[in-house]
Amino acid sequence: MNTRLYINGEWATAADGGEFTTSDPATGTVLATCAEAGPKDVEDAVDAARTALHDPAWATMPPSARARLLWRVADLIEEHKADLAELETRDQGQPLGVAHSVSVNGAAEHFRYFAGWCTKIEGAVSPVSFPDTLHYVRREPVGVCALITPWNFPLMIASWKLAPALACGNTVIIKPAEQTPLTTVRLIELCAEAGFPPGVVNLLTGGPDVGRALVAHPDIDKVSFTGSSSVGREIVQASAGNLKRVTLELGGKAPSVIARDADIDKAVAGNLQGALLNSGQVCAAYTRLYVDRRRADEFTEKLAAAASGLRLGPGLAPDTQIGPLVSQDHLDQVDSYVRTGADQGAELVTGGQRADGPLSSGNFYTPTVFGGVTDDMTIAREEIFGPVLPVLAYDDPEELAARANDTDFGLAASIWTRDLSTAHRLAADIRAGAVFINMLPIPDAAAPWGGYKTSGWGREMGPYALDAYTEIKGVWVHFDT
């Protein structure tokens, strides 16, 4: 299988002939050879997007027509959902059920949700204090948007950036992670089939240099990036040349509070899923589990028993519950964190090793539970992005908010309790962009998504995405008397 770049409505190989490969993380088998965009391809894509931004075919397209295009993409995603889910599983590793229920369904829902917004992007009239003066506000497209997506949920995250950007009338260049480009390529094929005018949607595949070139380019007006906090900082610095607009959804170290009154069995099941969805490769994964000390041993034992019983395997296997990590490099990084946790005195209760036997050729890591973890340990402070669950005990509920907030991150948090007062008080006190009470950390197209502190800038999804992808213009009209 070979994939190409998509620029100005045409599929083409890289101008300099560059290529790279993407592999199945469950087996190491090469899946495809992909075009590696170079400097000329970046220039061509930016020029195409800039021209299309002002082309009447797009710039004056009625909002209802834009809505139909987005709705058509959603229909096409659903028509091809089986193939898309299988492709996502092969390229990223997530179990097929997750690819179906989260990735593909989520992608379609984002296009449908923002199709509805196309006809509802309204301005306002402001009651200014100048006599005989009308002031009104217009929302206009930001311009040319570079959308840079990660490898953990490539199809869904591409959709939650692409759909609102297009709904607001922008033109886009999407750059997927080089580890998992295949479903994004397929998504752009569906956008082409839906009928977007040439240059409105462009695709550049390749490594970090492609993303850096887009971020630094003076004709890019907006960057939306999901990924690590360290790369987010680089983007902020590189975007300073023309002070382009930036939205960042970055790393996380989500605390999960298990109150004394929680249903322990439900909390175990929920935290296991919330921590191990997509093998823990989720920015909002529950990775600091604070448990009332009087129930910590019970919780840890049940959590370890449940984790050790999960079935590892290729995502396409029907009985797989935990798939592989995305790459050998990432596997090594996760294992290094586990070794550090043990060296710093955490109690390794279960897991803590690469899978052996028939799974040894893939990037599989056993679900790992640590007990006796303290707040200063590396596994309680740094984002591991793998199947590692550190359990921390607490004595006084009054200390929880401060401990939960004692981190550079602030993307998500979780609370498990049967007491509404506890739930609402902690939800108010914890500094995180999303707080999930007695449920899993899965976002929805209608709700805001983003983080505090080094977990990012701005919000995506819901009506808040309109702020990310529009500029506000005030118009003043004086009436002569």
From TrEMBL:
Keyword vocabulary terms for this entry: Oxidoreductase
Domain Aldehyde dehydrogenase: 12-474
Record has Methyltransferase as a keyword: no
Gene3D superfamilies named in the record: Aldehyde Dehydrogenase, Chain A, domain 1, Aldehyde Dehydrogenase, Chain A, domain 2
Stored Pfam families: Aldedh
Location of the active site: 249
Recorded GO MF terms: oxidoreductase activity, acting on the aldehyde or oxo group of donors, NAD or NADP as acceptor
Recorded family membership: Belongs to the aldehyde dehydrogenase family.
Name of the protein in its database record: Aldehyde dehydrogenase family protein
